[in-house]
Amino acid sequence: MEIRSAPGHLPGSVYSVVNEGQQLEMNQEIPECLLRPCGWLVPPGQHSDLVVSSRVRLARNITGMPFSHWASSSDLSRIAETSLRAIQDCSSMNGATVLSVEPLDSLDRKYLVERYLISRELAESGMERYAVVGRNEMVSVMVNEEDHLRLQVLTSGLSLREAWQRVNALDDEMEERIYYAFSPVYGYLTACPTNVGTGIRCSVMVHLPALVMTQRIKKVLSAVTQMGLTVRGIAGEGSEIAGNLFQISNQWTLGASEEETIEKLENIIRQIVDNERKTQQDLWVESRTALEDKVWRAFGLLSHARVLNSREALELISQLRMGLDLGLIKGIPYTAINDVIIQSRPAHLQKRAGKKLIATERDAIRATFLRDWIRRYTEKEINRIHES
Amino acid sequence: MPPPCPAGENEIYTMICEICKKNQAKIHVTQIKEDKKISIHLCQECAHEKGVAGPAINTHFSVADLLTGLLKGYEEQAEEQDLQRTCLECGLTYNSFKESGRFGCGECYNTFQQEIEPLLQKIQKQTRHVGKIPRRCGEEILLERNIADLRKRLQDAVNNENFEEAARLRDKIRDMEKGDCPH
Ligand SMILES: [Zn+2]
Ligand SMILES: [Zn+2]
């Protein structure tokens, strides 16, 4: 294996790693392949009407090296070099792209955060931080985040098991090449004791409009938190709840195996999803007109509004989605809804516009984007309404 | 010094309610609005009164916030010399762990074992690892786990007066402890 350094690149940094014909492509800007819709969102998974996505992430560290926060810049570059070498040898990362965070501007960083490829923490960091993104963006690795390595698999619908199998396979390949920091007592050692043990974080993003409308959500969420799970908003830690989207994840990493963690979370998600369906049916029976009105108002605004802020857009998309659940609206696939949620977020709008925009400009562009989007799917539907 | 826990404002736990300016703020609402992070800190009463918009979940604080909060609780108990105890591997003191909620290296888990056990008890399900073991360094651990497993089965067999099975298990455990192949 040889490591090529590109001219003008910082010494000590891995630029392009070549091995037996396999090569990780190193990028200083967002490559073309990440400007398309997220590939992993396309195949609809289980319960894809209510479950947007499943994610399994493993926290790992290289033994004998300080954790990234505490590491010197030469430590960081050694960690990065070791990690990137290992990653490029893994078959699960075949055809992957490496992004160096340092040269990216704030817009590009936000763009990656919106795609769930890097965390906000990594976005705010600098030297020797990398994101390695596999094909379809399904598998990705963050290098030198809080932990040296964060291996992640994203899948659509409720598919934690599949995501775990994939990330576990990558982890197996990695551990053939890296000695992980591991203790028989505490398991995989992590910078934060909230991750120690399995280092696993499983998250499922669910859409629960009826539970929110009826306020039954409070009961559901308090039950969920009592069971050792955490609930967050659409943008992860510290984010507010918007668009009736909830990210539910495990809290415990020590004392519960990966399988146990996944099974528990999946079971709870199934119950919540059942609950949401029942509540939708109840609402349909009790207040059908109000429900129809809500859905069609959302449809009207999405088709005609000239200014939409982030929050309002999420709410309207949520109501439109509920229209699909109830069979009021036809012809829009759930995967398209999942995609438009990401595409209408601020950095995505700006990236497509090719420049930074202030909030009022963004809101106008967002409205235009959503109008075009909904028209694409519903031209027939609109004609049908107008004819009848 | 590592930067403070990225998700958590450490000072959050001693904040005064922004509405009544009297009680201690216990509800912390963090919102990302456009590109700005806005935090509001309220006492329980005021938060309740304001109905802190929407579902109850808006009152969440991150796990990391919770952690630094829990650590502060141990402060009184910890002796000054404990706070100055240093990980020989990375140089982190217990005090800086307490402030950042982050360890400096894997060895810190050994260095500060005494301090973190009660913490792990609070934030984790148990204080011992269950689950995946790296294949490379895992053989011994796997063996130990197998033996522990067999001992449990042996105890069950004895309890059920299934002595034939018990004898078989006992021999197997003996073999495994000698390091022989269990098969
Ligand atoms: Zn107050
Ligand atoms: Zn240490």
* Main sheet summary of chain B: 2 strands, antiparallel
Compute the number of helices of chain B.
Answer: 8
Q: Specify the structural class of chain B.
A: mainly alpha
Radius of gyration of chain A: 22 Å
Shape of chain A, please?
A: globular
Quaternary structure type: heterodimer
Can you describe this structure?
The complex is a heterodimer of chains A (388) and B (183). In chain A, a hairpin with a 5-residue loop joins strand 7 and strand 8. Chain A is of the alpha+beta class. Helices cover 44% and strands 17% of the residues of chain A. The relative contact order of chain A is 0.12. Chain A is globular and about 70 Å long. Chain B is mainly alpha-helical. Chain B contains eight helices and two strands. Chain B is elongated. The termini of chain B are far apart. Mean pLDDT of chain B is 70; it is low at 1-14 and 53-63. Chains A and B meet through helix 4, strand 10, strand 11, helix 6 and strand 13 of A and strand 1, helix 2, helix 6 and helix 7 of B. The structure holds zinc ion (ZN) (2 copies). One zinc ion is lined by residues 17, 19-20, 23, 42-43, 45-46 of chain B.
For the structure shown, list the relevant keywords.
heterodimer; A: 388 residues; alpha+beta; Creatine Kinase, Chain A, domain 2; 9-stranded mixed sheet; 3-stranded antiparallel sheet; 12 helices; 14 strands; 44% helix; globular; disordered N terminus; B: 183 residues; mainly alpha; two-stranded antiparallel ribbon; 2 strands; 48% helix; 8% strand; elongated; binds zinc ion
